[in-house]
Design brief:
The protein is mainly α. It has ten helices and three strands. The structure holds heme C.
Length: 300
C-alpha cells in the first residue's frame, strides 16, 4: 500500500511539475513577446480640419471603432473603467481625450497605433482590438485621429492594466488576444472594399462581433471568462440563432436593445457602438449574418 501511494505521489508530482513547467514557459513567451520593440515605420500623416472628415472620424470612433464602449474608453472617451476578468486580467481603458495619453503621441504614432497595435515605445498595445478596425482605409484612420484631437479634454485618475497568469497562458494558446501586435501581419494589413450593402463589406463590418460571438459567429462562453460575464449568443441563421429574426427585429435590437422576446439585451453587448452604425453598415452586416452557414450554438 505504501509503495502504491508512493508511486501515485510520484506520478502526481511529475504531472504537477509538467503543468508548472508548461505555464512558466507560456508566461515567459508572453512576457518576451510584449517586450518586443517592433520596427514598423511611423507613417507620415496630415490631419484634417474639414468638417466632413471630422464627421466621418466621429462616426467611426463611435461605431466601427467602438472606442466609446463602456468597457473600453467610455462615452466621454476618458477611459478609467475597470473590466474585471478575475484571474485572467484587470483591464483599464486609457484616457483618449486630449488630456490623456494622446498628448504624448504624434499624429503618425497614433495612426500607427490604430493600424498596427504598436504603442509610442514600439511595443504592443494590450487588449485593444486593433483588428476590429484596421481593415479601414488609412484615410479613415486619419479621420478618426483628426476627430480625437478635437474632443473635450477630460482629466481622470487611472489604474493600471494587469494581465494575470491565466490571461498570459490564454493569449499564448490563442484563446484570448491580449498581445495585439504579434497577431498582425504588419506588411500586409487587410483592406476592405468600399462601403456598400454587400455580404463582402458586411463581413468586414462584422469583424468586431467575432471577438465575442466567435469566428463562426455561433456563440458560446468566452474562453477563461468568469461566470458573471454574459454568454455571447448564436448569430448564424440556425434554430438556436437568428433563424427566425427579421431585419426589423435586428434593427430594433440595435436601436433599443430590445430582443424579439421583449427582454433587454445585457449591457456587455456593445450596443452603443452598434447603435451608431449607419444604414449601409447595418444593412451590410445583416446581409452578411443571413449569408452565414447555420451552426448550432456554442461552436465559436
Ligand atoms: C463584448 C462582446 C460582444 C461583442 C463585441 C458583440 N456582442 Fe453581440 N452579444 C454579446 C452577448 C454577451 C450577448 C448576449 C447578451 C444577453 O444574454 O442578453 C449578445 C447578444 C447579441 C444579439 C442577440 C441575439 C439573441 O439571440 O438574443 C445580437 C443580435 C448580437 N449580439 C449581435 C452582435 C453583432 C452584430 C455584433 C458586432 C457588430 C456583436 N453582437 C458584438 C456580446 C458581444
Amino acid at each position: 500500500m505504501k509503495k502504491f501511494l508512493l508511486i501515485v505521489g510520484i506520478v502526481l508530482g511529475v504531472a504537477a511539475l509538467g503543468v508548472a513547467g508548461f505555464v512558466g514557459f507560456q508566461v515567459m513567451k508572453f512576457n518576451s513577446s510584449v517586450a518586443k520593440v517592433y520596427k514598423v515605420a511611423i507613417p507620415k500623416v496630415t490631419l484634417s480640419k474639414d468638417p466632413a472628415v471630422l464627421e466621418r472620424g466621429k462616426h467611426l470612433v463611435l461605431s466601427l471603432g467602438a472606442c466609446a464602449s463602456s468597457d473600453c474608453h467610455g462615452g466621454n472617451l476618458a477611459g478609467g473603467n475597470v473590466l474585471q476578468m478575475g484571474p485572467v486580467a484587470t483591464v483599464i481603458g486609457s484616457n483618449i481625450t486630449p488630456a490623456g495619453v494622446l498628448k504624448d503621441y504624434s499624429d503618425g504614432e497614433l495612426v500607427r497605433l490604430l493600424r498596427h497595435g504598436i504603442k509610442k515605445n514600439g511595443q504592443t498595445v494590450l487588449m485593444m482590438p486593433i483588428e476590429d478596425f484596421n481593415w479601414l482605409p488609412k484615410s479613415d484612420i486619419v479621420a478618426m485621429v483628426s476627430y480625437l484631437r478635437t474632443v473635450k479634454p477630460v482629466k481622470k485618475k487611472m489604474g493600471t492594466t494587469r494581465i494575470g497568469i491565466l490571461g498570459k497562458v490564454l493569449d499564448r494558446l490563442d484563446q484570448f488576444p491580449f498581445d495585439q501586435a504579434r497577431r498582425i501581419e504588419h506588411d500586409k494589413l487587410p483592406s476592405a472594399p468600399k462601403p456598400s450593402v454587400t455580404v463582402a463589406y458586411g463581413s468586414f463590418v462584422a469583424t468586431s462581433c467575432r471577438g465575442c460571438h466567435g469566428k463562426t459567429m455561433s456563440g458560446g462562453k468566452l474562453p477563461g471568462a468568469p461566470s458573471n460575464l454574459p454568454i455571447p449568443t448564436n448569430l448564424t441563421p440556425h434554430e438556436s440563432g437568428l433563424k427566425k429574426w427579421t431585419y426589423q427585429n435586428f434593427r430594433k435590437m440595435i436601436a433599443t436593445g430590445i430582443l424579439p422576446n421583449g427582454k433587454k439585451v445585457k449591457p456587455f453587448m456593445p450596443l452603443n457602438m452598434l447603435k451608431n452604425m449607419n444604414l449601409t453598415e447595418r444593412k451590410a452586416l445583416w446581409l452578411y449574418l443571413k449569408s452565414l452557414p447555420p451552426k448550432p450554438f456554442g461552436n465559436r
